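pinned: reference chain
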Amino acid sequence: MKKFLIVAALLFSVLCFSQVENVQEKPWSFSTGIILAPQAGLDLKESKNGVTNQTNLFATVSASKGNSTLVGFYSVKNSIGLVYLGPIKGDFGWYGVALKGVVENFNYAGIGGTYSLGKNSIFIEFGSSLDAFTPGIYVGVFIPFTVKLK
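pinned: its structure tokens
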């Protein structure tokens, strides 16, 4: 599964980065840092349980070219993952995320939309475990604290 995710992410990023005009002229930029993500979630299969809230903390390394970004992360909830972020129009964007549990055996995939507010972004995400279909919808804010490496 890990090899598949790596190959899929590489192929997907090459495809997406190649769609940007003059992408060859734009240099790669790299950054690292942490992202704080307070969010509310609703399990669509068990909606009677109501809305839950949580705050996630991610250690990240990102590579950007043009308007597209590929982010590898480690969550303090013991998972590793990969996110591809792309622009839609103006301050709106989208992302796809895949993660795998480090301690517990779980896999997750989701797709979301963002609206930028300066360096922060409001997000809405729809995703599910890959082991059993357990759809959920999440709304929150990404608050990055990053340092540019190149």
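why pinned: The domain at 2-148 is CATH 2.40.128 (Lipocalin). The mean pLDDT is 86.
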